[in-house]
Amino acid sequence: MGMPCEVNSILKLKPSQGYPYQLEKGKRYSAQKEGYRIVPIDVPIPLVDEGWFAHADIKIHKLVWENGVTSMDFEIDRIYESPFLTKA
Q: Are 32 and 71 in contact (CB under 8 A)?
């Protein structure tokens, strides 16, 4: 018996999952994704929108697995001058 989980090195969010409407460096945000996910904590990873465009680097500070949902608190570490496509 095992626990299904997904390993992610980026955070891809839809607005309904907590994608910030306005990015502010140093500001903290919360997000939720279905399923159990493993993501790096306290190191910069890209924040990607639902169209796979990266807009910023974030640092996840808190990660909670509960009832089939991964909840996280993150902080904007760096905002890119221009978004770029991460997946074709």
A: yes
> What topology does CATH give the domain 6-85?
Ribosomal Protein L25; Chain P (2.40.240)
Q: Looking at residue 20, what DSSP letter applies? A: -
Domain boundaries, the chain: 6-85
Q: What angle do CA 57, 62, 65 make, to 5 degrees?
A: 115
The CA-CA-CA angle for residues 88, 72, 40, to 5°, reads: 60
Q: What is the pLDDT of residues 26-58, one digit of tens each?
A: 999 999 999 999 999 999 999 999 999 999 999
Sequence length of the chain is 88
